[in-house]
């Protein structure tokens, strides 16, 4: 089978012949690779905490620090409005957006492991530069290096996990990436809570400790095997067979290996995978996997909370320590949600998590908006009871996101692409994801300032749109072998009208 390029009915029947055991080698490989999510998570958590620290603001953003001390009506929502301050956060994601195209080439030609190693080195260098920063230029350059690291890591790790996983547990294994991300966020918020007490250099420790997950990822990456899919793609068939036998814990891998080889034949015929994404047969993967899901994942508003949880809570009247403590609660909820999703996603399916959690998230965003409209913005801090209510509502929102759009935003796209466009497709996923991440990071604080509580209503409206997108366009992919997901499109009531008429011939998938 060729992952969407052939109409091979025999290959379509091979999935039931796949055999596997959960081996120590498989567990080690997946845990080490998933540590790449800690890079992304640590940065998500640490940047918001650092930008709320007085010592950091005094040194680099004194105007923001002075505004933070004010309690005037016109500054309640606008204390942190500074395009340079938000550039500190968003520059990383713009850099990741650009670097993911280089990562696509490395991932396809040199393998998933190579991209993981490159990403860890770049992230390490960026963390060192940020910790040593004496001016804004050093901060931004360091953030760019961090962004390159995230661009490479986010490109390779979800692919690695999906390709190493047996179909029946692929959802849970792929979500190790999200779990690692959430743990990175939790650890970063805990570190921020402690380093905020270390004056005046605590922020340097917060930024510098990003070298730890980068070092773990690099050293672990050296011991990682390449995925069988990538080895076959590179023409290393014997090595691929050995790795597949070792990962699956059985010598009976002929059916799965045959699917990999068939998919590789199609991949070798594709000289321009990005152009191939535009073909009719790849239209569902392009619209759902490369564009829709990664964009919508950011438009939920969740990353605004992750970036700026301490900033948001301070803007809403919480004290410095209280805001960091509240962000600890929300990041802890995110870890719990990831564990829930891992436990049930292969049993309940992707669509149910998307749709059920989407309904909850709409309600929570509306509740936050109504609460702020009634209680906040009058030049005074929020009442204690209202503050507790907001923390609870935001935590519930995090729980809903953390078992749906958070992990599934990486899992589902990694399942959709056939091998011949998988690396290019994942680059598009990361590119679109980071573009909207950077956009939200750059625009959220100014939007909070001008739209006030209305920004949360905007997010609620966007979640309604994205839930409809999932309901009408996404087929269920649970326990479907990754090289056979292509057959879902011809059975889907909408997509079959688009992909069903394009001729597919055995052994011919070259581009026109």
Automatic annotation (TrEMBL):
Q: Which family does it belong to?
A: Belongs to the major facilitator superfamily. Sugar transporter (TC 2.A.1.1) family.
Q: Name one GO cellular component term.
A: membrane
Q: Does the keyword Zinc apply?
A: no
Q: Which UniProt keywords apply?
A: Membrane, Sugar transport, Symport, Transmembrane, Transmembrane helix, Transport
Gene Ontology MF terms = monosaccharide transmembrane transporter activity; symporter activity
One Pfam entry name = Sugar_tr
Membrane as UniProt keyword: yes
What is the recorded membrane topology of this protein?
Multi-pass membrane protein
Q: What is this protein called?
A: Putative hexose transporter
Output the InterPro entries linked to this UniProt entry.
MFS_dom (IPR020846), MFS_STP/MST-like_plant (IPR044778), MFS_sugar_transport-like (IPR005828), MFS_trans_sf (IPR036259), STP/PLT_plant (IPR045262), Sugar/inositol_transpt (IPR003663), Sugar_transporter_CS (IPR005829)
Q: What NCBIfam families would the database entry show? A: SP
**Domain (Major facilitator superfamily (MFS) profile): residue spans on this chain:** 29-478
Q: What is its main location?
A: membrane
